């Protein structure tokens, strides 16, 4: 190889160049990347809703010797605990031996809800030889993407007698699926000339759930009756029980590798299980001298509201209870704490270059992406991490050899988005966003790079070290 020129050497020393993780990973590390992806895909298939993600996470924690924590319980260094919030969010934590007032918490916060099609409270009707459920979508979706694909139904129904039944249909090989219709192109002339936001309206997102008439000459709505009959036999429910049900239609596709080389994964709900799963694994897998918490929260997609969203007092209460149990002043603890708000960002998509500013966009396989700020327009709605805190996080990543990049969600004027970061920063905890770049975010089938998933996991380990 020719000797490097003076300018080349200087450029190497002074200029910043981000790296493709696959290009720099050792053979051993590549194996780890692909092995971790298998575990992640299994989690995705088992956890399509926040309820399921919560249950699966608790099971994984139990297997690693974690036990349930309730407010008021005693705690000591070395304890491994999980706290369940209303079966829809969970905080998995380890108590470290460092002084909590001086060292604070190491928090990783991500969300386990994802955009989907929720079933209305009075949903069932029949028309045109089919039975349907009326829906109300959850989160920011392009409605037209949810038609003509296989859907599964997940959720919980609280029956008249107060008993709760869990429902999951459409995932197993022999399960039926559900379906939202779209217009054939032959008759779609007028539809296709409309705006994409209205070619499918909210009230057209009706899910087909049946087509077999009940055999009795004397009843009307025969198909609806036969569907009700099946629901009654299988779940003990009547039509009235939909009033207190929480059912969602989600894509029935399992997670799959993408590409001849299997470098990428397509799945429903990478946003934000691609951060929640590595966060969970980091806390389960590694002992730390710090007190570390993986917060897997609900309702991020609709503003982090309610009793299970990040804005709820319950998470602050939990941290305060931990501080009290360890005899620490909670104000001091918060001031000393550090948080990675872990949510996905938009990956640069070469099919749509006009909305990205490439040098500040996350590139697929270039590692998990740190976003100093989120928000829209003039950073509105963002907590904007300080240079000092970003510097600290950067040093921790570099020390552990994490391949990572920075990102902004699209061009300055192109749009924007927010995460849970500001709610945690508002508690007086230094917080910065870090997460996996996603292609086709919020689509029924999203794509990420296996290298970025593993980079995210490694970044969490480095942060907890
Ligand atoms: Mn998200
Ligand atoms: Mn989202």
Note the topology.
Elements: H1 6-14, H2 21-24, H3 27-46, H4 50-63, E1 67-68, E2 80-85, E3 89-94, H5 100-103, E4 105-111, E5 116-127, E6 130-138, E7 151-158, E8 164-169, E9 179-180, H6 189-192, E10 207-210, H7 222-235, E11 245-251, E12 256-258, E13 264-267, H8 270-285, E14 291-297, H9 313-325, H10 330-336, E15 338-341, E16 345-346, E17 368-371, E18 375-376, H11 387-399, E19 404-406, E20 416-417, H12 421-425, E21 430-435, E22 437-438, E23 446-449, H13 450-464
Helix pairs in contact: 3-13, 4-8, 8-13, 11-13
Residues 111, 271-272, 300, 343-344 line the site of one manganese (II) ion.
Structure description:
- The structure is a single chain.
- This protein is of the alpha/beta class.
- It is built from 13 helices and 23 strands.
- The strands form five sheets. Strands 1-2-3-14-4-15-21-17-19 form a nine-stranded mixed beta sheet, sandwiched between helices.
- Strand 5 (116-127) and strand 6 (130-138) form a beta hairpin.
- Helix 8 packs across helix 13.
- The protein starts with 5 loop residues before the first helix and ends with a helix.
- Bound molecules: manganese (II) ion (MN) (2 copies).
- Residues 111, 271-272, 300, 343-344 line the site of one manganese (II) ion.
Keywords:
465 residues; 13 helices; alpha/beta; 30% helix; seven-stranded antiparallel beta sheet; binds manganese (II) ion; nine-stranded mixed beta sheet
Give the structure's gist in a few sentences.
The protein has 465 residues and is α/β, with parallel strands linked by helices. Helices cover 30% and strands 24% of the residues.
